[in-house]
Amino acid sequence: MLLYIDPGTGSMLFTILIGVIGASIYSLRMLWIKIRFKLSGGKVQADTLCPEFVIFSDDKRYWKIFEPVCREMDKRGRDVVYMTCSEDDPALDNPYPHIKAEYVGNENKAFARLNFMNATMVLSTTPGLDVYQWKRSKQVKYYVHIPHAASEITLYRMFGIDYYDAILLSGEYQAQDIRKLEKLRGLPAKELVKIGIPYMDEMAARLEKEGPAPEHPRTVLLAPSWGQSAIFNVYGGKILDVLLKTGYHVIVRPHPQSFKSEKEMLEKLMAEYPESDQLEWNRDTDNFDVLRRSDILISDFSGVIFDFTLVYDKPVIYTNPQFDLSLYDAWWLKEPIWTTTALPRLGCQLTEDNMENLKELIDTCISDPKYAEGRSSVKAETWEHFGNGAEKAAEYLINKYDELTKEKEGK
Asked: Which of the following CATH numbers is that of domain 208-382: 3.30.70.1710, 3.40.50.2000, 3.40.50.1240, 2.60.40.640?
């Protein structure tokens, strides 16, 4: 009879195993360093020194978040070790002399290394530090988190950012929410630094360079997320039927995870609604072109909503899925999350009752000036230091490093 281990126990056992393995690796490494130190006549070898800055990325899609910061650090001549869990991460082929990228294995293997890493500062977009398998290393002085989207900081899984030392933010409302959580949980105050949104600065600069899309028929982009509350799982093909009745050009761009987790459902929809002059299915790796040539976006809780409205300055139609906030940090605040105040300013809500009037909703969102005004107000709240995010991030990291190393020298 097979021995059953529940997921919680399995996670605990895995953490213990990682700790034992990591401690053994660390002890052997320290022993080897001592041996080399003696053999070299007491001279320090360059490869035993800890890096100033490490960036950890658990997926290749976050290179767009880190690249502007890496480029700025490279311009300033600061060496960065970029650790990625993706073998095909574009960071591995980056053109920046001071950015040394390396593949560190899948998450479990990576965490085994990270938990005993030697570095002054670590920057990451990965939540859960010191909560699950990823533990703070005693040889790392400072951990800094940067969000991967321009939205809610409290929609991480519970305690996701509690044990970082600093958070790089895009707006004041995020800072206020973090301070409330710290007070409720009795946590020490983290360093909160508003830098803006580097990756959106890149998108905005690219759009300014390329200019608006050539003249085209009115185009609607349907970009659902995935999961039980996502558009296709709630409405199925009905929303495609209604969209096609509008006579507008329709682009459908499912979430990449849907092609993995909901493959059967998507294949069925693609067979029932094949491509035509009016309908196209889009899977481009780079979404710049499809966002540029779309006049309005229909989505649910995908982060592309803020990219589309704030960078391309266009309206959205959004659904209102019922989140179980008990899983997230937002549950502690017992008040409406910022996103629920932002969405009505960006466009109209799609419901079962008004779906048959979708054409009118589309026309209203595009023509009504109140939504243009709403986009401006939302942008002001969540995108500070417009155009200067990478510079602000690099300045902070370098200044903090200088502060930390001076403290060390003073001891």
From this structure: 3.40.50.2000
Strands 219-222 and 191-194: unpaired
CA–CA gap between residue 64 and residue 60 (Å, rounded): 9
Residues 339, 351: Cα–Cα separation, whole Å = 18
Place 7 in a pLDDT band, splitting at 50, 70 and 90: very low
Of 273, 278, 246, 255, which is closest to residue 365 (Cα–Cα)? 246
- What does pTM read for this prediction? 0.82
Question: Residue 308, by phi and psi: left (phi above 0), alpha (psi -120 to 50) or beta?
Answer: alpha
pLDDT in tens, 12-33: 455 455 545 544 554 454 454 4
| Topology adopted by domain 49-197+387-410 | Rossmann fold (3.40.50)
Other beta carbons within 10 Å of 267: 11
Yes or no: say if 370 and 214 are a contact pair by the CB < 8 Å rule.
Answer: no
